[in-house]
């Protein structure tokens, strides 16, 4: 192979690297390797509370507050509350509350056509994000009684899984 023939593949490789290096750099900044960031302990905390029902209604509306408890910026992906959080609802005996028909369709691994566009946001130290969502359409809260609800959030960008407090909801 002479110098002219060798120059073309080298130029092509240089052009390809020139295009991909900024993308790789952006990914490395957004997703540092676990343990490299130097941050010990959790970076995010979730607090779950129930929003009061409107008069004459018995809905289960939750408010999840996600707070950056670290001293640095924390990137998070945001798609929508029911996508961002995994819900666990148990009755007073500790048994899982069954999903409603709509809940089975929504939480199915085969769901089609309901995905929303995800965005990456940055929470500054001490900053909070509040998500409110109605869940009684997705679970069969068929009987009056006490229910224990928690939410989890897999914060891939923060390299952690966060779990909320256990919220007791009493339905009459």
Structure in a nutshell:
This protein is α+β, with helices and mostly antiparallel strands and 172 residues long. It has helices spanning 3-30, 81-84, 101-107; strands at residues 44-51, 61-68, 74-78, 86-91, 119-123, 128-134, 145-155, 160-163, 167-171.
Give structural notes.
The protein folds into two domains: 1-33; 42-171, Intracellular proteinase inhibitor BsuPI (Immunoglobulin-like, Sandwich), CATH 2.60.40. It is 23% helix and 34% strand. It is built from three helices and nine strands. Strands 4, 7, 8 and 9 form a four-stranded antiparallel beta sheet that branches. It has a three-stranded antiparallel beta sheet with strand order 1-2-6, with no helix packed on it. The chain has a two-stranded antiparallel ribbon with strand order 3-5. Strand 7 (145-155) and strand 8 form a beta hairpin. The longest helix has 28 residues, at 3-30. The protein is globular and about 45 Å long. Residues 3-17, 21-26 and 32-38 have low confidence and may be disordered.
Text of the CATH class of the largest domain: Mainly Beta
- CATH fold assignment of the largest domain: Immunoglobulin-like
Give me the CATH superfamily of the largest domain: Intracellular proteinase inhibitor BsuPI
Give the low-pLDDT segments.
3-17, 21-26, 32-38
Mean pLDDT: 78
Sheet-strand content, in percent, reads 25-35%
Q: What distance lies between the first and last C-alpha atoms, to the nearest angstrom?
A: 83 Å
Instruction: List how many beta strands DSSP finds.
Output: 9
Instruction: Tell me the overall shape.
Output: globular
Structural class assignment:
alpha+beta
State the helical fraction.
10-25%
* Gyration radius from CA atoms, angstroms: 23 Å
Number of helices: 3
Number of discrete domains: 2
CATH architecture of the largest domain: Sandwich
Q: What is the succession of H and E elements?
A: HEEEHEHEEEEE
> In this structure, how is the largest beta sheet organized?
4 strands, antiparallel
């Amino acid at each position: 192979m002479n110098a002219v023939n060798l120059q073309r593949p080298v130029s092509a490789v240089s052009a390809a690297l020139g295009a991909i290096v900024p993308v790789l750099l952006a990914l490395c900044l957004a997703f540092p390797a676990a343990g490299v960031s130097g941050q010990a302990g959790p970076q995010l905390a979730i607090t779950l509370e129930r929003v009061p029902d409107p008069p004459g209604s018995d809905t289960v509306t939750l408010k999840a507050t996600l707070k950056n408890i670290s001293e640095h910026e924390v990137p998070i992906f945001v798609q929508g509350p029911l996508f961002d959080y995994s819900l666990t609802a148990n009755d007073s005996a500790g048994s899982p509350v069954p999903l409603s028909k709509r809940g089975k369709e929504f939480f199915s691994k085969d769901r089609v056509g309901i995905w929303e566009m995800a965005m990456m946001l940055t929470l500054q130290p001490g900053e909070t994000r509040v998500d409110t969502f109605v869940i009684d359409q997705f679970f069969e809260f068929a009987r009056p009684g006490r229910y224990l609800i928690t939410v989890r959030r897999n914060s891939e960008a923060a390299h952690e899984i966060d779990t909320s407090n256990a919220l007791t909801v009493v339905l009459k």
